[in-house]
Amino acid sequence: QVQLVESGGGLVQAGDSLILSCAASGTTYSVRVMGWFRQPPGKEREFVAAISWIDDKTYYGGSPLGRFVISKDNAKRTLYLRMNNLGPEDTAAYYCAASTYYADSYLDAELYDYWGQGTQVTVSS
Question: How far apart are CA 96 and CA 125, in angstroms?
Fold first, then answer.
C-alpha cells in the first residue's frame, strides 16, 4: 500500500506562485509514475502533470499552458508541483496520485492506484 499526503495549498492572489508537495510512504518501490490532478468547483477532474520515477519522463496537460512544473525528490519520495502566475481559473482541489502500472502515457485517472486527500488552492482576483 502507498499513502500520499498533499500539502502547500491555500489562499493566494492572482499572479502569485505556489509549490504543492506530496509525500509518499509505504510500498513506494512499486510506484512507476506520480502525478497531479485538479478539480475546480462544479467541474470534472482533470489531469495536470505527471513524472516517471523510472526515467524522469514528464507529462503535462494543456490547461496550465506552460505555467506549471512538476518535479520530484527521490530521496524524500516527495512529488512537487510549482504553479506560476496563478489565476482564478486555477482555483481547484489538487490531488496527488501514484501509479504502479506500465503505460505509454498517464493522462487517464484510471491508471492511478493511489490518491491523496487533496489540498485546496484558491486564487483571488
Answer: 26
